[in-house]
Design a protein that fits this description.
Length: 208
């Protein structure tokens, strides 16, 4: 794997992670209701959940790669279109986060397990990984090495992202409840996602 490929994957992952989804809304809900103590167990749960979903997705993608190069190429095109779709959907989203504070007393282990379940069992997450990962895989390189590098990178960034969201939500609650700030955030994230999808299409076209 070249450094450029890894850097592109890390940059795209960072953009995608900061976009609030079901997992981040759960993290914010706990942080709003119970403060900064939720940050570490929630971040660990998110990281473990992403590890579970990403491993299942990578094994599926690896099976497709071993079965048919044509199917694998088609998956890359579908993945690029999916990124553009997500970007447009996010750009058109409103300026609110549906995260109600969870004030019921919950142990750290229960928070960790809840975050793991929501992250790992989210079918949209697995669909996303199947569409996203092939953009960066080199069919000619060793699959298991690439899998290890991509998973370690994604999980590390996912942990940092969840931890950051929890700390911000517990300390600066006005930020996560500001419709204008969330609206601008969604538009910026949507634009970056569409750009990533278009860049992927351009790379695919340039390689043929």
């Amino acid at each position: 794997m070249t450094f450029e490929t890894w850097a592109a994957f890390a940059a795209a992952t960072a953009v995608l992670l900061v976009i609030p989804g079901p997992t981040i809304l759960l993290v914010i809900s706990y942080a709003l209701g119970q403060g900064w103590r939720t940050a570490f167990p929630m971040a660990v749960g998110v990281a473990l959940g992403d590890f579970t979903a990403m491993t299942l997705s990578m094994l599926g993608v690896g099976a497709l790669l071993a079965t048919s190069a044509t199917i694998f190429t088609a998956l890359k095109w579908i993945g690029a279109a999916y990124l553009i779709y997500l970007g447009i959907k996010l750009f058109r989203a409103g300026g609110s986060l549906n995260a109600e504070p969870r004030k019921d007393a919950t142990s750290a282990w229960k928070m960790l397990g809840h975050a793991w379940l929501v992250t790992a069992l989210n079918p949209k997450g697995i669909t996303f990984f199947v569409a996203f990962l092939p953009q960066f895989l080199d069919p000619k390189a060793d699959f298991w090495t690439q899998m290890l590098i991509f998973e370690a990178t994604f999980i590390g960034l996912a942990f940092a992202n969840a931890l950051g969201y929890a700390l911000i939500a517990s300390r600066a609650r006005s930020v996560v409840s500001n419709p204008r700030a969330i609206g601008l955030f969604n538009k910026a994230g949507g634009t970056l996602l569409v750009g990533a999808g278009i860049a992927t299409v351009a790379m695919r076209s340039g390689s043929h």
